[in-house]
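User: Teach me something about this protein's shape.
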Amino acid sequence: MPDFETPEILRLPLEELCLRIKVYNLGSIRSVLSTALDKPSSQMIDNAIASLKEAQALTTEEEERLTPLGSHLVNLPVDIHIGKMILFGAIFRCLDPILTIAAMLSYKSPFTRPFGKEREADIARSRFEIGESDFLTMYQAYDAWRNYLMQVRGKPGWLRHMHEFCKENFLSQQNLEMIEEMKRQFLALLINIGFVKTSKLDISINRYDIKRSIHLCDVPSAYNKYSGTLPVVNAALTAGLYPKIAEYVRESGIMANRMMEVKLHPSSMLFLREKELHSEILAYNTLIMGNKEYQRNRAIIRDATSVDPVALVLLTRDIKIQHKQRKITLDNWLSFDCFARTAVILKFFRNELNRWLAEKMKDPAVDLTAYNQDILDAIAYMLQSCNY
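Assistant: First, the predicted structure itself:
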């Protein structure tokens, strides 16, 4: 054991600390952190600031002011990408799957993979595969667990039935209950900051069993209009995870993010399918740096989802349309073939979406107008037409 506990400043996520500095108007992030007793390295500070700018939580100018999005992320005690994902889940009206996935990424996977039973566990997980996505597969398993719980709860022997269901499907009942609890907490946070409106006094424990409390979180139906529309759910995931993006180049067989070559972890359901995926773009949550000599310039990504370029065009920061070349370039990195007319249409919807998002971030109480609902419906239709 270490002689002394790690200082809190080094235990807190540095991005969260940077946001707090800005919220309390303490001055420049670098100057405040550089005077701390247990200060992070200058490289760590630079990386945290760059991450916040890429997430659009800080402005890109030298003053590095807090954006409206950043002011909301401060109130969500999670990783900034997961926090942004949660906000977009509410805005895009696909909140139940997004809250569930956010809880899983903040805690643990619902799946188990016992030693000696890896093959059986993988076969069980494959029954839930959907949407070329590790995230959606986890949600599919959770949804099956919740639906089964709703069927058997209160009946004779229901706890035994739940145990058997989890054992058969290699799911952790303990993890799933914690995921449900975290989901409830995330929903309460969204209500507190005004992103979710509800007339219920307490929606967090409106369903439970008197013998053993398994609290189920009920998301207001108004925020679930697109929860069954996988492309919209994937778009909300992508909005939160960006710029954690990797591109697979079929010609060379190489996958890379903006900085280096990457590989999918064998535990990903996409591992054996990367050459067959409908899109060459993946959004991921975790990046693991190689620790062996031959892995020095390569990293491993876990928990990924296939992303259609249309979602990226609508949600990334910078877009350049090259009409003559019939190309769209995103953030000076990703390029896609695109007819000029299609590019103009996408740019229109992108601008309208950004306008609405800016209004929503400044004032969460702003509700969907009929026009904004039409824009969201049109975007959902476009995403669905991409054949996820």
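Now, about its shape. The first strand starts at residue 245 and ends at 249. Residues 8-73 form one domain. If you'd like, I can walk through any region in more detail.
User: That's plenty for now, thanks!
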